[in-house]
Automatic annotation (TrEMBL), chains A, C:
Any one GO molecular function term: phosphoenolpyruvate-glycerone phosphotransferase activity
InterPro entries cross-referenced by the UniProt entry: DhaK_1, DhaK_dom, Dihydroxyacetone_Kinase
Gene3D superfamilies: Dihydroxyacetone kinase, domain 1 (3.40.50.10440), Dihydroxyacetone kinase, domain 2 (3.30.1180.20)
PROSITE patterns reported in the protein's UniProt record: DHAK
Lineage: Bacteria, Bacillati, Bacillota, Bacilli, Bacillales
NCBIfam families: dhaK1, PRK14479.1
Protein name: Dihydroxyacetone kinase subunit DhaK
Enzyme class: transferase
Positions of the DhaK domain: 7-329
TrEMBL record, chains B, D:
GO function term, MF aspect, one: kinase activity
InterPro entries: DhaK_L_YcgS (IPR012737), DhaL_dom (IPR004007), DhaL_dom_sf (IPR036117), Dihydroxyacetone_Kinase (IPR050861)
Positions of the DhaL domain: 6-200
Protein name per UniProt: Dihydroxyacetone kinase subunit DhaL
Entry's transmembrane regions: none
SMART domains: Dak2 (SM01120)
Keywords carried by this UniProt record: Kinase, Transferase
Length: 331, 206, 331, 206
């Protein structure tokens, strides 16, 4: 394991101190917790947006704390959902009386811990609503299983729910628009290499020099299919095929696109994927409202990428384009 | 046989000992079908439990298990945190006012714990989760008239090993579908260590 | 070699198409060249800022094209300075009559190619000035050698020269402030892994599992010293020691800080480095005006980081804080 | 012996052949003390030269070398692009109006090329660059009364090999200081292939 860390068990706590030290004017860490909140929290008259999950996905989620996105990010151990008491602290620190909205990625752990916190907060008289993001089309959606994972599409939920809240939306309105995003966003990823949880010390799976994993998640777990490495164009084709047919996205639709790096992918490669993604969209007759290329939802030092599409309407466009100023997402 | 405060504490300390010893193995299992943190999670959670109860002054088993529950709930996180936390919380609630705890009360407590896990995680038997260990243990405790430590351990072990051939439909392992077959479920394994710790403590207590 | 590419020889050209496809409203590629320019170039009444160099450092330099930073980025092959004719096209496309300012990283190739383009442009009657960035303290500075390399500190030159130009500064004023940045900026880097030039197909050097390189550049070249991997705190200490003593930065100084990832470093690790960097600055009595943590000047998929300090005065602060809106640097 | 347009073209085609054949080797050398692109750069540049001159209709060597210069200058980039580009530009200028080019004129042309490289790169002999091959070649051509192909090649080869023991003070290799010792300079190696191509063409032309 080659990592720039001190004690592997202190990696998350060191990181949080490093984040707060980087942006002392805009964020702070709630004492005794692993919660990063807007320095001006609670923001009067605004619904608060709280997200989080295991660490190792940076800049998600602490990098999205700021005006126009999250009020707080609850940071668990690496790839481990934070416990309910941490989430509860985030809820309490950000509620201005207008209620708190939780953006949860669909993993058993995240759902259970966040829902427990929600119950605790409600018991304390705080209004809380939630959305569960499940954009990963690599995983079959079925009533009888855990269901689809939440991956990079989550960033669009943060941005749009955040903009709605910033614009003065009520808790119900924020929930409604977040659900609209979830209904219209789909993603799929692939990887060339595994990654190593610092405290584990060994990679989570093994890939041969000529192999790649298709349908990868963001927790170092293997994907749904292992095959020989293909060209960037073939990879883009495969990911897009699954994503496009799932909603489905159709000729005449307008979308936002995210080409997301998993942590160790040179931006050059992400742009090469984007070239093909844009060509496919053009051929399909789908218009692109806006594209995002970069590392938004990572999996430590995994090499690979995911592609996300979000079908837009006028409301989503206005909210996506609204200004936000956070370390990792700003315009 | 009865379970008193000291037995309860010994059980949890022994469980911690096992979680520390098997930390890497549990993590390795979780690398196969999950995200590779289960051993780290359990080792962190149970070492916090040992610290917590070492500093407490307990009069009832219910209180020991309540502190255990709260500690696991707030120190593990992930899927196993709320599940083990809920389990011990239900156990604690069921044992309130029962000290010293007799076998019947304990059996009912474990049954309540199992139900708590199932409510929280919405998994039933055969989905390749810790439920697959808790269920046969709860059943054995209910039906037996005198807990035999060796039998308890054997049931937990076989139940754990049986998860190997299952296809997961809950938890992270579910993403692998057929590919989840062939590996023991990490939560089933940690549950086995928990009950094997109990068996050892009961044996010594005799 | 595990890469998401098509033909290795087409990687740069594919990437450029992917960049332009991502931001079609703000940038364009000059036809038949590897130059990315602001879509509204030439910007009337503004000195144009042109930079560039070999590719493989993304988001440098195309990611910094936009309002408040660069007017054009000239993109060479991977780690290979672009030829003079490409630089000339960038100069011609961005000159509004107020002159063009070249930001050159100090490598023989970059200096030669950019200076030849400068001569050609002057021969065509265009006013051109330049600055050569040489912030890397790992390399000895001597009259008789190539001198120090330009690394991540270059981003501060882009930002500050860009802001000066945007504010209406003359070519001389832009040059003066760029030289002030160069005089006050110092960096040093380290790596855990090498990287692979796509067309070469094999890594540029080899490191054992327990080794790191101190004083690494950004072109896949080995560093100045090889040693056993140290903790994040020790690494931060070593880099900071060299950087701090070079200018030197002193008690009471105010600085901007950049903790830069080389491409495959999880953000978590960059923030862990930042934690220690900020502690060291605090102990030394140096105030931090602003910190930047992320991938700004990379070396393909190299794992590692660099630390940059820029000593600030009021002018530099105003210009660093001025708004910029480019894909990779925006606030 | 004289150099006519056909010999000039054969020289460049042969040089391209060598750059393609030695592409990986040159890149490997550049990985040792540089950034690992020299073979890629030279292969790209010279294949463009071959294409360019295949489509031309040349009356003078000066024109062949001018197109070579412009092509290398705009297709290589890096440090070697401007250096080889300048070299061939100076060679072209020196040979203007001299066709067919005799040995003396050619010797003066190579001397002018060397000076161009030195002006552009500010390197002198012993700094572990291509200058260390161009300088002894220019000297040999000036002092000999009749170019011997074998001798030309031998001088270039020895000069290239001698760069191995030098410590670089120019170009990227300079960053390595003492560590740059022990590896042949990639630009010296490509210069050797250029002159060894010339030697082979002169031999065949006899
Ligand atoms: N819905 C569920 N019901 C019961 N047990 C579950 C459920 N989801 C996960 N588990 C158990 O939790 C274990 C994984 O725990 P752990 O690795 O600590 O959490 P995570 O999956 O969040 O990383 C699984 O092996 C399984 O036994
Ligand atoms: N200042 C210089 N003067 C003469 N030759 C130089 C100089 N700098 C570099 N070179 C030559 O260029 C070669 C490297 O070329 P190349 O790898 O193509 O360019 P780069 O160094 O930009 O990657 C070196 O081996 C050396 O021979
Ligand atoms: Mg986990
Ligand atoms: Mg796990
Ligand atoms: Mg180069
Ligand atoms: Mg080179």
């Amino acid at each position: 394991m080659k990592k720039i860390i001190n004690d592997p068990n202190q990696a998350v706590s060191d990181m949080l101190q490093g984040i707060v030290a980087a942006y002392p004017d805009s964020v702070k860490q709630l004492e005794g917790t692993t919660v990063v909140v807007r320095k001006d929290a609670p923001v009067a008259g605004k619904v608060a947006i709280v997200s989080g999950g295991g660490s190792g996905h940076e800049p998600a989620h602490a990098g999205y704390v700021g005006k126009g996105m999250l009020d707080a990010a609850v940071c668990g151990e690496v790839f481990t959902s934070p416990a309910p008491d941490q989430v509860l602290e985030a809820i309490k620190a950000t509620d201005s009386g207008k209620g708190v909205f939780l953006v949860i990625k669909n993993y058993s752990g995240d759902v259970m811990n966040f829902e427990m916190a929600m119950e605790m907060a409600e018991a304390e008289g705080i209004q809380v609503e939630k959305v569960v993001v499940n954009d990963d089309v690599a995983v079959e959606d079925s009533e009888f299983t855990t269901g689809r994972r939440g991956i990079a599409g989550t960033i669009f939920v943060h941005k749009i729910a955040g903009a709605k809240a910033e614009a003065g939306g009520s808790l119900e309105e924020v929930k409604a628009v977040a659900e609209k995003v979830v209904a219209n966003v789909r993603s799929m990823g692939m990887a060339l290499t595994p990654c190593t949880v610092p405290a584990a010390g060994t990679p989570s799976f093994h890939l041969e020099e000529n192999e790649m994993e298709i349908g990868i998640g963001i927790h170092g777990e293997a994907g749904i299919e292992r095959k020989p490495i293909a060209s960037a164009d073939e990879i883009a084709n495969e990911l897009m095929e699954h994503v496009l047919h799932d909603l489905p996205y159709r000729k005449g639709d307008e979308v936002a696109v995210m080409v997301n790096g998993l942590g160790a992918t040179p931006e050059m490669e992400l742009y090469i994927i984007n070239k093909k993604v844009q060509e496919i969209l053009k051929e399909t007759g789908i218009n692109v409202h806006r594209a995002f290329v970069g590392n938004f939802m990572t999996s430590l030092e995994m090499a690979g990428c995911s592609v996300t599409l979000l079908k837009m309407d006028d409301e989503l466009k206005t909210l996506l384009d609204a200004p936000s100023s956070t370390p990792a997402f700003c315009f | 046989m009865e379970i008193d405060v000291q037995t309860a504490i010994s059980w949890l300390n022994k469980a911690n000992e096992k979680m520390q010893a098997e930390k890497d193995y549990l993590t390795k299992l979780d690398q196969e079908t999950g995200d590779g943190d289960h051993g780290i999670n359990m080792a962190r959670g149970f070492s916090e439990v040992e610290n917590k109860i070492a500093n407490g002054n307990y009069e009832t088993c219910a209180d020991v298990f309540k502190d255990t529950a709260m500690t696991l709930m707030s120190k593990i996180g992930g899927a196993s945190g709320p599940l083990y936390g809920t389990a011990f919380l239900r156990l604690s609630t069921a044992l309130k006012g029962q000290d010293p705890v007799d076998e019947k009360a304990f059996a009912q407590g474990v049954q309540a714990a199992l139900e708590g896990i199932q409510q929280r995680g919405k998994a039933s038997v055969g989905e390749k989760t810790m439920v697959d260990v808790w269920q046969p243990i709860a059943a054995y405790l209910q039906e037996t008239s005198a807990i035999e430590a060796a039998q308890l351990e054997k049931i937990a072990k076989e139940a754990m090993e049986a998860t190997k051939d299952l296809i997961a439909t809950k938890g992270r392992a579910a993403y692998f579908k057929e590919r989840s077959k062939g590996a023991i479920d990490p939560g089933a394994a940690s549950s086995f260590y928990l009950f094997s710790a109990l068996a050892e403590v009961l044996k010594e207590a005799k």
